[in-house]
Amino acid sequence: MTVSVDGHFAPEVQALPLEISVYAQPENSVGYLLRMGFRGFSTMLERKTSPHGVSSGQWRFLRQLWIDDGPTQRELSVRVGMREPTTVVAVNSLVKSGLALREPSVEDRRKVHIRLTPLGRSLQATLLPMVADVNDRATKGLTKAEIATLLRLLRHINGNMAQELEQIGGDTVP
Amino acid sequence: MTVSVDGHFAPEVQALPLEISVYAQPENSVGYLLRMGFRGFSTMLERKTSPHGVSSGQWRFLRQLWIDDGPTQRELSVRVGMREPTTVVAVNSLVKSGLALREPSVEDRRKVHIRLTPLGRSLQATLLPMVADVNDRATKGLTKAEIATLLRLLRHINGNMAQELEQIGGDTVP
DNA sequence: GGACTTTAGTTAGTGTTCTAACTAATAATT
DNA sequence: AATTATTAGTTAGAACACTAACTAAAGTCC
Protein backbone atom coordinates (compact mmCIF):
# COMPACT_ATOMS: atom_id res chain seq x y z
CA MET A 1 0.00 0.00 0.00
CA THR A 2 2.81 2.40 0.64
CA VAL A 3 4.90 1.21 -2.29
CA SER A 4 5.31 3.83 -4.99
CA VAL A 5 5.14 3.36 -8.73
CA ASP A 6 8.74 2.32 -9.14
CA GLY A 7 9.02 0.17 -6.06
CA HIS A 8 10.51 2.57 -3.55
CA PHE A 9 9.03 2.75 -0.11
CA ALA A 10 7.60 5.86 1.44
CA PRO A 11 8.40 5.05 5.03
CA GLU A 12 6.75 8.10 6.59
CA VAL A 13 3.37 6.95 5.41
CA GLN A 14 3.52 3.83 7.52
CA ALA A 15 3.38 5.90 10.67
CA LEU A 16 -0.20 6.90 9.83
CA PRO A 17 -3.37 4.84 10.39
CA LEU A 18 -4.35 2.66 7.45
CA GLU A 19 -7.60 4.51 6.73
CA ILE A 20 -5.56 7.64 6.17
CA SER A 21 -2.47 6.27 4.47
CA VAL A 22 -4.68 4.86 1.72
CA TYR A 23 -4.99 8.42 0.42
CA ALA A 24 -1.24 8.76 0.01
CA GLN A 25 -1.90 7.07 -3.34
CA PRO A 26 -3.74 9.46 -5.65
CA GLU A 27 -5.48 6.57 -7.43
CA ASN A 28 -7.40 5.89 -4.21
CA SER A 29 -8.69 9.42 -3.88
CA VAL A 30 -12.03 10.35 -5.40
CA GLY A 31 -10.74 13.88 -5.84
CA TYR A 32 -7.82 12.82 -7.99
CA LEU A 33 -9.99 10.56 -10.14
CA LEU A 34 -12.53 13.35 -10.63
CA ARG A 35 -9.80 15.77 -11.62
CA MET A 36 -8.29 13.43 -14.20
CA GLY A 37 -11.74 12.59 -15.52
CA PHE A 38 -12.77 16.19 -15.84
CA ARG A 39 -9.54 17.16 -17.58
CA GLY A 40 -9.80 14.28 -20.04
CA PHE A 41 -13.41 15.07 -20.79
CA SER A 42 -12.73 18.73 -21.24
CA THR A 43 -9.78 18.13 -23.53
CA MET A 44 -11.68 15.66 -25.69
CA LEU A 45 -14.65 17.95 -26.05
CA GLU A 46 -12.56 21.00 -26.82
CA ARG A 47 -10.73 19.16 -29.60
CA LYS A 48 -14.07 18.66 -31.29
CA THR A 49 -15.65 22.04 -30.67
CA SER A 50 -12.68 24.31 -31.22
CA PRO A 51 -12.74 23.89 -35.03
CA HIS A 52 -16.17 25.52 -34.75
CA GLY A 53 -14.72 28.39 -32.74
CA VAL A 54 -16.17 27.25 -29.40
CA SER A 55 -13.91 26.79 -26.38
CA SER A 56 -14.71 24.65 -23.35
CA GLY A 57 -15.38 27.79 -21.33
CA GLN A 58 -17.92 29.08 -23.83
CA TRP A 59 -19.47 25.65 -24.22
CA ARG A 60 -20.93 25.49 -20.69
CA PHE A 61 -22.69 28.83 -21.11
CA LEU A 62 -23.93 28.03 -24.59
CA ARG A 63 -25.52 24.82 -23.37
CA GLN A 64 -27.41 26.68 -20.67
CA LEU A 65 -28.60 29.29 -23.16
CA TRP A 66 -29.89 26.56 -25.45
CA ILE A 67 -32.00 25.33 -22.54
CA ASP A 68 -33.25 28.79 -21.59
CA ASP A 69 -32.47 31.81 -23.73
CA GLY A 70 -32.52 35.35 -22.36
CA PRO A 71 -31.75 35.00 -18.63
CA THR A 72 -30.13 37.81 -16.69
CA GLN A 73 -26.41 37.48 -16.21
CA ARG A 74 -26.95 36.60 -12.55
CA GLU A 75 -29.43 33.85 -13.42
CA LEU A 76 -27.04 32.50 -15.99
CA SER A 77 -24.25 32.37 -13.40
CA VAL A 78 -26.36 30.40 -10.96
CA ARG A 79 -27.56 27.92 -13.54
CA VAL A 80 -24.15 27.23 -15.01
CA GLY A 81 -22.66 27.04 -11.52
CA MET A 82 -20.01 29.71 -11.94
CA ARG A 83 -19.26 32.93 -10.10
CA GLU A 84 -20.25 36.21 -11.67
CA PRO A 85 -16.86 37.50 -12.68
CA THR A 86 -16.43 34.24 -14.59
CA THR A 87 -19.74 34.84 -16.29
CA VAL A 88 -18.74 38.37 -17.23
CA VAL A 89 -15.66 37.05 -18.97
CA ALA A 90 -17.52 34.19 -20.63
CA VAL A 91 -20.31 36.43 -21.91
CA ASN A 92 -17.76 38.93 -23.20
CA SER A 93 -16.20 36.14 -25.18
CA LEU A 94 -19.56 34.88 -26.49
CA VAL A 95 -20.45 38.41 -27.59
CA LYS A 96 -17.06 38.85 -29.21
CA SER A 97 -17.54 35.59 -31.12
CA GLY A 98 -20.98 36.69 -32.30
CA LEU A 99 -22.78 33.90 -30.43
CA ALA A 100 -24.73 36.02 -27.94
CA LEU A 101 -25.82 39.59 -27.17
CA ARG A 102 -26.23 41.71 -24.04
CA GLU A 103 -29.69 43.24 -23.91
CA PRO A 104 -30.34 45.79 -21.14
CA SER A 105 -33.53 45.15 -19.18
CA VAL A 106 -36.26 47.75 -19.58
CA GLU A 107 -37.92 47.38 -16.19
CA ASP A 108 -34.73 47.22 -14.11
CA ARG A 109 -31.77 49.19 -15.30
CA ARG A 110 -29.32 47.07 -13.28
CA LYS A 111 -30.17 43.92 -15.17
CA VAL A 112 -28.85 42.66 -18.46
CA HIS A 113 -30.38 39.81 -20.41
CA ILE A 114 -28.18 37.43 -22.36
CA ARG A 115 -29.64 36.33 -25.65
CA LEU A 116 -28.31 33.95 -28.29
CA THR A 117 -27.73 35.15 -31.83
CA PRO A 118 -29.04 32.95 -34.64
CA LEU A 119 -25.47 31.71 -35.05
CA GLY A 120 -25.24 30.81 -31.37
CA ARG A 121 -28.52 28.97 -31.49
CA SER A 122 -27.70 27.16 -34.69
CA LEU A 123 -24.57 25.65 -33.19
CA GLN A 124 -26.66 23.41 -30.98
CA ALA A 125 -27.34 21.02 -33.82
CA THR A 126 -23.62 20.73 -34.51
CA LEU A 127 -22.23 20.71 -31.00
CA LEU A 128 -24.68 18.64 -28.99
CA PRO A 129 -23.89 15.45 -30.92
CA MET A 130 -20.26 16.03 -30.01
CA VAL A 131 -20.93 15.78 -26.27
CA ALA A 132 -22.97 12.67 -26.95
CA ASP A 133 -19.96 11.24 -28.76
CA VAL A 134 -17.51 12.18 -26.02
CA ASN A 135 -19.83 10.66 -23.40
CA ASP A 136 -20.01 7.48 -25.47
CA ARG A 137 -16.26 7.22 -25.82
CA ALA A 138 -15.68 7.93 -22.15
CA THR A 139 -18.13 5.24 -21.03
CA LYS A 140 -17.12 2.65 -23.62
CA GLY A 141 -17.08 -0.85 -22.13
CA LEU A 142 -19.59 -0.01 -19.41
CA THR A 143 -23.12 -1.40 -19.39
CA LYS A 144 -26.11 0.91 -19.32
CA ALA A 145 -26.68 -0.10 -15.72
CA GLU A 146 -23.12 0.79 -14.81
CA ILE A 147 -23.43 4.19 -16.45
CA ALA A 148 -26.65 4.83 -14.58
CA THR A 149 -24.90 3.85 -11.36
CA LEU A 150 -22.00 6.16 -12.11
CA LEU A 151 -24.36 9.09 -12.70
CA ARG A 152 -26.24 8.31 -9.51
CA LEU A 153 -23.08 8.08 -7.40
CA LEU A 154 -21.64 11.26 -8.88
CA ARG A 155 -24.86 13.14 -8.20
CA HIS A 156 -24.81 11.81 -4.67
CA ILE A 157 -21.30 13.01 -3.86
CA ASN A 158 -21.96 16.33 -5.57
CA GLY A 159 -25.00 16.73 -3.37
CA ASN A 160 -22.92 15.94 -0.30
CA MET A 161 -20.29 18.49 -1.22
CA ALA A 162 -22.75 21.23 -2.12
CA GLN A 163 -24.35 20.76 1.28
CA GLU A 164 -21.00 20.68 3.04
CA LEU A 165 -19.79 23.85 1.35
CA GLU A 166 -23.05 25.68 1.86
CA GLN A 167 -22.98 24.87 5.58
CA ILE A 168 -19.49 26.09 6.31
CA GLY A 169 -18.52 28.97 4.10
CA GLY A 170 -20.65 31.41 2.14
CA ASP A 171 -22.38 29.99 -0.89
CA THR A 172 -20.15 28.22 -3.40
CA VAL A 173 -21.07 25.45 -5.85
CA PRO A 174 -24.83 25.45 -6.29
CA MET B 1 -36.70 15.92 -21.18
CA THR B 2 -36.44 19.19 -23.03
CA VAL B 3 -38.16 21.20 -20.32
CA SER B 4 -35.86 23.63 -18.59
CA VAL B 5 -35.61 24.41 -14.91
CA ASP B 6 -38.35 27.00 -14.86
CA GLY B 7 -40.73 25.25 -17.18
CA HIS B 8 -39.95 26.86 -20.51
CA PHE B 9 -39.51 24.67 -23.53
CA ALA B 10 -36.39 24.50 -25.60
CA PRO B 11 -38.02 23.59 -28.88
CA GLU B 12 -34.87 23.26 -30.95
CA VAL B 13 -33.76 20.31 -28.88
CA GLN B 14 -36.73 18.27 -29.96
CA ALA B 15 -35.47 18.20 -33.51
CA LEU B 16 -32.52 16.03 -32.38
CA PRO B 17 -32.54 12.27 -31.76
CA LEU B 18 -33.30 11.29 -28.18
CA GLU B 19 -29.87 9.78 -27.50
CA ILE B 20 -28.38 13.17 -28.25
CA SER B 21 -30.95 15.50 -26.74
CA VAL B 22 -30.39 13.82 -23.37
CA TYR B 23 -27.14 15.74 -23.18
CA ALA B 24 -28.89 19.07 -23.50
CA GLN B 25 -29.35 18.69 -19.74
CA PRO B 26 -26.00 19.07 -18.00
CA GLU B 27 -27.07 16.77 -15.16
CA ASN B 28 -27.07 13.89 -17.66
CA SER B 29 -23.52 14.49 -18.81
CA VAL B 30 -20.67 12.69 -17.11
CA GLY B 31 -18.43 15.61 -17.97
CA TYR B 32 -20.57 18.11 -16.10
CA LEU B 33 -20.86 15.88 -13.05
CA LEU B 34 -17.10 15.34 -13.01
CA ARG B 35 -16.48 19.06 -13.24
CA MET B 36 -18.80 19.90 -10.38
CA GLY B 37 -17.37 17.08 -8.32
CA PHE B 38 -13.81 18.11 -8.93
CA ARG B 39 -14.54 21.74 -8.08
CA GLY B 40 -16.33 20.85 -4.88
CA PHE B 41 -13.56 18.54 -3.83
CA SER B 42 -10.88 21.04 -4.62
CA THR B 43 -12.65 23.84 -2.76
CA MET B 44 -13.24 21.70 0.32
CA LEU B 45 -9.65 20.52 0.46
CA GLU B 46 -8.23 23.99 -0.06
CA ARG B 47 -10.28 25.36 2.82
CA LYS B 48 -8.54 22.91 5.09
CA THR B 49 -5.01 23.12 3.74
CA SER B 50 -4.71 26.84 3.10
CA PRO B 51 -4.40 27.72 6.81
CA HIS B 52 -1.19 25.65 6.61
CA GLY B 53 0.01 27.65 3.63
CA VAL B 54 -0.68 24.90 1.09
CA SER B 55 -2.80 25.59 -1.99
CA SER B 56 -4.59 22.95 -4.02
CA GLY B 57 -2.01 23.37 -6.77
CA GLN B 58 0.88 22.70 -4.41
CA TRP B 59 -0.98 19.89 -2.74
CA ARG B 60 -0.88 17.55 -5.74
CA PHE B 61 2.87 17.92 -6.09
CA LEU B 62 3.49 17.55 -2.39
CA ARG B 63 1.57 14.29 -2.31
CA GLN B 64 3.69 12.87 -5.11
CA LEU B 65 6.90 13.94 -3.38
CA TRP B 66 5.76 12.23 -0.20
CA ILE B 67 5.45 9.03 -2.22
CA ASP B 68 8.78 9.43 -3.97
CA ASP B 69 11.15 12.20 -2.97
CA GLY B 70 13.87 13.48 -5.31
CA PRO B 71 12.53 12.85 -8.83
CA THR B 72 13.60 14.99 -11.76
CA GLN B 73 11.19 17.71 -12.72
CA ARG B 74 10.16 15.73 -15.80
CA GLU B 75 9.45 12.61 -13.75
CA LEU B 76 7.44 14.66 -11.33
CA SER B 77 5.37 16.11 -14.17
CA VAL B 78 4.53 12.68 -15.53
CA ARG B 79 3.59 11.23 -12.16
CA VAL B 80 1.39 14.13 -11.14
CA GLY B 81 -0.19 14.19 -14.59
CA MET B 82 0.62 17.78 -15.47
CA ARG B 83 2.52 19.44 -18.28
CA GLU B 84 5.98 20.73 -17.61
CA PRO B 85 5.30 24.46 -17.59
CA THR B 86 2.73 23.77 -14.90
CA THR B 87 5.36 21.87 -12.94
CA VAL B 88 7.84 24.70 -13.29
CA VAL B 89 5.38 27.10 -11.72
CA ALA B 90 4.33 24.65 -9.01
CA VAL B 91 7.92 23.85 -8.05
CA ASN B 92 8.75 27.55 -7.99
CA SER B 93 5.94 28.03 -5.54
CA LEU B 94 6.99 25.06 -3.39
CA VAL B 95 10.55 26.41 -3.28
CA LYS B 96 9.32 29.87 -2.41
CA SER B 97 7.23 28.45 0.42
CA GLY B 98 10.21 26.53 1.77
CA LEU B 99 8.61 23.14 1.12
CA ALA B 100 11.02 21.83 -1.55
CA LEU B 101 14.40 22.47 -3.15
CA ARG B 102 15.84 22.26 -6.67
CA GLU B 103 18.98 20.15 -6.70
CA PRO B 104 20.99 20.08 -9.98
CA SER B 105 21.88 16.57 -11.10
CA VAL B 106 25.59 15.77 -11.06
CA GLU B 107 25.65 13.19 -13.86
CA ASP B 108 23.43 15.11 -16.29
CA ARG B 109 23.56 18.86 -16.23
CA ARG B 110 20.17 19.22 -17.87
CA LYS B 111 18.38 17.52 -15.02
CA VAL B 112 17.17 18.96 -11.76
CA HIS B 113 16.00 16.87 -8.82
CA ILE B 114 13.16 18.08 -6.63
CA ARG B 115 13.62 17.29 -2.98
CA LEU B 116 11.38 17.99 0.01
CA THR B 117 12.62 20.12 2.86
CA PRO B 118 12.02 18.80 6.39
CA LEU B 119 9.10 21.22 6.57
CA GLY B 120 7.63 19.88 3.33
CA ARG B 121 7.97 16.31 4.54
CA SER B 122 6.56 17.04 7.96
CA LEU B 123 3.33 18.40 6.49
CA GLN B 124 2.28 14.94 5.42
CA ALA B 125 1.19 14.02 8.92
CA THR B 126 -0.99 17.13 9.04
CA LEU B 127 -2.36 17.21 5.53
CA LEU B 128 -3.03 13.59 4.64
CA PRO B 129 -5.75 13.22 7.29
CA MET B 130 -7.44 16.19 5.67
CA VAL B 131 -7.89 14.40 2.34
CA ALA B 132 -9.16 11.41 4.22
CA ASP B 133 -11.71 13.65 5.87
CA VAL B 134 -12.75 15.30 2.62
CA ASN B 135 -13.14 11.90 0.97
CA ASP B 136 -15.28 10.78 3.90
CA ARG B 137 -17.54 13.80 3.71
CA ALA B 138 -17.87 13.54 -0.05
CA THR B 139 -18.86 9.87 0.09
CA LYS B 140 -21.12 10.15 3.14
CA GLY B 141 -24.22 8.01 2.78
CA LEU B 142 -22.59 5.58 0.36
CA THR B 143 -21.76 2.01 1.33
CA LYS B 144 -18.20 0.71 1.05
CA ALA B 145 -19.30 -1.34 -1.92
CA GLU B 146 -20.72 1.72 -3.64
CA ILE B 147 -17.53 3.66 -3.04
CA ALA B 148 -15.49 0.80 -4.47
CA THR B 149 -17.80 0.76 -7.50
CA LEU B 150 -17.42 4.50 -7.94
CA LEU B 151 -13.63 4.24 -7.89
CA ARG B 152 -13.71 1.36 -10.36
CA LEU B 153 -16.00 3.18 -12.77
CA LEU B 154 -14.00 6.39 -12.56
CA ARG B 155 -10.76 4.50 -13.24
CA HIS B 156 -12.46 2.83 -16.17
CA ILE B 157 -13.58 6.02 -17.86
CA ASN B 158 -10.23 7.67 -17.14
CA GLY B 159 -8.56 4.72 -18.84
CA ASN B 160 -10.88 5.10 -21.82
CA MET B 161 -10.13 8.78 -22.14
CA ALA B 162 -6.38 8.43 -21.72
CA GLN B 163 -6.42 5.86 -24.52
CA GLU B 164 -8.64 8.01 -26.69
CA LEU B 165 -6.47 11.10 -26.25
CA GLU B 166 -3.24 9.20 -26.76
CA GLN B 167 -4.54 7.72 -30.01
CA ILE B 168 -5.62 10.94 -31.64
CA GLY B 169 -3.51 13.85 -30.62
CA GLY B 170 -0.01 13.85 -29.17
CA ASP B 171 0.39 12.68 -25.62
CA THR B 172 -1.89 14.37 -23.11
CA VAL B 173 -3.25 13.03 -19.82
CA PRO B 174 -1.04 10.16 -18.69
C1' DG C 1 34.27 14.73 -35.29
C1' DG C 2 30.82 17.84 -37.00
C1' DA C 3 25.77 17.95 -38.19
C1' DC C 4 21.36 16.33 -36.81
C1' DT C 5 18.11 14.65 -33.18
C1' DT C 6 16.37 14.04 -28.78
C1' DT C 7 15.78 15.35 -23.96
C1' DA C 8 15.27 18.71 -19.88
C1' DG C 9 13.88 22.73 -18.51
C1' DT C 10 12.34 27.47 -19.20
C1' DT C 11 9.82 31.60 -20.95
C1' DA C 12 5.89 33.89 -23.17
C1' DG C 13 1.29 34.23 -23.91
C1' DT C 14 -3.62 32.56 -23.35
C1' DG C 15 -7.84 30.73 -21.17
C1' DT C 16 -10.63 29.58 -17.15
C1' DT C 17 -11.79 30.31 -12.73
C1' DC C 18 -11.65 32.39 -8.27
C1' DT C 19 -11.96 36.25 -4.27
C1' DA C 20 -12.18 40.98 -2.98
C1' DA C 21 -13.37 45.40 -3.75
C1' DC C 22 -15.84 48.59 -6.42
C1' DT C 23 -20.11 51.39 -9.00
C1' DA C 24 -24.79 51.93 -9.95
C1' DA C 25 -29.58 51.03 -9.35
C1' DT C 26 -33.42 49.46 -6.65
C1' DA C 27 -35.81 48.27 -2.24
C1' DA C 28 -36.55 48.78 2.75
C1' DT C 29 -36.74 51.42 6.95
C1' DT C 30 -37.22 54.91 9.96
C1' DA D 1 -38.04 61.94 2.05
C1' DA D 2 -33.48 60.65 3.42
C1' DT D 3 -30.69 57.16 4.99
C1' DT D 4 -29.50 52.44 4.86
C1' DA D 5 -29.39 47.89 2.87
C1' DT D 6 -29.62 44.84 -0.88
C1' DT D 7 -28.98 43.44 -5.63
C1' DA D 8 -26.68 43.43 -10.44
C1' DG D 9 -22.89 43.89 -12.70
C1' DT D 10 -18.03 45.18 -13.24
C1' DT D 11 -12.99 45.64 -12.50
C1' DA D 12 -8.55 44.24 -10.49
C1' DG D 13 -5.55 40.85 -9.23
C1' DA D 14 -4.38 36.16 -8.38
C1' DA D 15 -3.88 30.87 -9.07
C1' DC D 16 -3.70 27.11 -12.11
C1' DA D 17 -3.35 24.84 -16.34
C1' DC D 18 -2.46 24.80 -21.15
C1' DT D 19 0.24 25.28 -26.03
C1' DA D 20 4.02 27.01 -28.65
C1' DA D 21 8.44 28.44 -29.03
C1' DC D 22 12.83 28.82 -27.04
C1' DT D 23 17.90 27.53 -24.73
C1' DA D 24 21.09 24.28 -23.28
C1' DA D 25 22.92 19.76 -22.74
C1' DA D 26 23.48 14.99 -24.22
C1' DG D 27 23.16 11.36 -27.64
C1' DT D 28 23.34 9.59 -32.77
C1' DC D 29 25.03 8.88 -37.10
C1' DC D 30 27.15 9.19 -41.25
Q: Assembly state here?
A: homodimer
Which ranges of chain A are low-confidence, i.e. pLDDT below 50, for 5 or more consecutive residues? 1-10, 169-174
Termini separation of chain A comes to 36 Å
Helical percent range of chain A? 55-70%
Number of strands of chain A: 2
Strand percentage of chain A lies at: 5-15%
Series of H and E elements of chain A: HHHHHEEHH
Description:
2 copies of one chain form a homodimer. With 174 residues, chain A is mainly alpha-helical. In chain A, helix 4 (73-80) packs across helix 5. In chain A, strands 1-2 form a two-stranded antiparallel sheet. Mean pLDDT of chain A is 86; it is low at 1-10 and 169-174. Chain A contains 7 helices and 2 strands, in the order H-H-H-H-H-E-E-H-H. In chain A, strand 1 and strand 2 (112-116) form a beta hairpin. The first copy, chain A, has helices at residues 18-21, 30-49, 56-67, 73-80, 84-96, 118-138, 144-168; strands spanning 100-104, 112-116. At the A-B interface, helix 1, helix 2, helix 3, helix 6 and helix 7 of A face helix 1, helix 2, helix 3, helix 6 and helix 7 of B. The structure holds a DNA duplex (30 and 30 nucleotides).
Give me a quick take on this structure.
2 copies of one chain form a homodimer. Chain A is mainly alpha-helical and 174 residues long. Helix content of chain A is 59%, strand content 6%.
Index terms:
homodimer; 174 residues; mainly alpha; two-stranded antiparallel sheet; 2 strands; 6% strand; globular; disordered N terminus; DNA-binding
What is the topological layout?
The structure is a homodimer of 174-residue chains.
Chain A: H1 18-21, H2 30-49, H3 56-67, H4 73-80, H5 84-96, E1 100-104, E2 112-116, H6 118-138, H7 144-168
Antiparallel strand pairs in A: 1-2
Chain A binds a DNA duplex (30 and 30 nucleotides) through helix 5.
